[in-house]
Specification:
188 residues, mainly beta, 8-stranded antiparallel β-barrel
């Protein structure tokens, strides 16, 4: 009887472990960008072109995790001069802090197994702060061309750049930054 019970527990644990799906970002459809007020004239939007992400999802049990790393040297503003300013020690200090990371603590789910929020810790320049990203779009389905399960999402959140030692020129240049993530990921 004990052996039967142990076998049942092992098979249930295996079935639970198999319900967790791991997705890796599609590099052609995954970007992070940020918006800020520039001297009151306009909202500027700049992005990072190299974003790596891994997502684990267990939709049945409504749990999962997200890990993201962003190559700071991939910042793209449309201006080589401004790219260099952002990469310098005045802002990101990219040579000393080449990677921005985000690691989730919790995913929130809606009625239809859709992810509605991602809570976690954002690390920039060695400084870690909690951040909540609101998911504005989430969908998982079979990729029509690659014939693999895929998930995609769009998410947004706000941070204060001064909290990450990026506060130069506040308040002339806005302290509040709106973060945006657009990600598509393919099942391993």
């Amino acid at each position: 009887m004990k052996k039967l019970f142990a076998a049942l527990v092992c098979s249930l644990s295996l079935a639970s472990a198999l319900a967790v799906d791991v997705y890796e970002r599609d590099p052609d459809h995954t970007f992070a960008w940020f918006e800020f007020n520039h001297l009151g004239y306009s909202m500027q939007r700049d992005r990072f072109d190299k974003v790596d992400a891994t997502v684990t999802l267990d939709l049945e049990n409504q749990v999962g995790s997200v890990e993201v790393s962003i190559a700071v040297h991939s910042v793209s503003t449309g201006s080589l001069l401004f790219d260099q300013v952002l990469l310098s020690d005045m802002f990101f200090d990219a040579d000393k802090f080449p990677v921005i990371t985000f690691k989730s603590d919790r995913l929130s789910f809606g009625k239809f197994d859709d992810v509605t929020a991602v809570e976690g810790n954002l690390t920039i320049k060695g400084i870690t702060r909690p951040v909540t990203l609101t998911v504005t779009h989430f969908k998982c389905m079979m990729h029509p061309m690659l014939r693999k399960p895929a998930c995609g999402l769009n998410a947004t959140g706000k941070v204060r750049r001064s909290e990450f030692n990026l506060g130069r020129f506040v308040p002339l240049i806005g302290d509040e930054i709106t973060l945006h993530v657009s990600m598509e990921a393919l099942k391993r």
